[in-house]
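Protein modeling request. Please complete all fields; requests missing the sequence field cannot be processed.
Requester role: graduate student
Desired output: 3D structure, token encoding
Chains: 1
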Amino acid sequence: MPRIDTPEVKALSDEQKQQYDRFPANLTLALLRTTGFASGYLSLGASFPRGAISDKDRELAILRVGALSQSPYERMQHLPLARRAGWSDAEIERIEAGRGPDAGSQLILQFVDECVKNVKVSPQTFSAVSAFYTETQMAELTLLVGHYMMTARFLETLGVPLDEEATPWTNM
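Delivered output (172 residues):
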């Protein structure tokens, strides 16, 4: 149940419409209730696919954050991306339950779990993931987890309704 009213698309200003056209989703409509945060938020989200983390690992982390945050919106938006990255439905189910299909994925899930639940990842987990991730990837993974934690809290606290289908990223 929505907890705030979002603007109607036909009532958007030209500037708001520009942001909505980048990512035409209920999330964007809710972001447009802020005093100008939509552009920066969308730009940060759009930067992750251009980062140093593989599509597969990125979607693994996002799906786990969504599961830990009990965010069906994040799940709905990222299932097609996870499948496109190469995850099967059976693997996605395991990921959401915190069980990685291989040792590297399990360590990334452990990193995500600790970051979400404890804020700071343990030295052991950080070291284990650092054995196969560069410092750039470690920084980006941490930022990715934080971004999707923020997104889940925004969506769930405000009761942003699910979109009819996942939103394409073609304009991002």
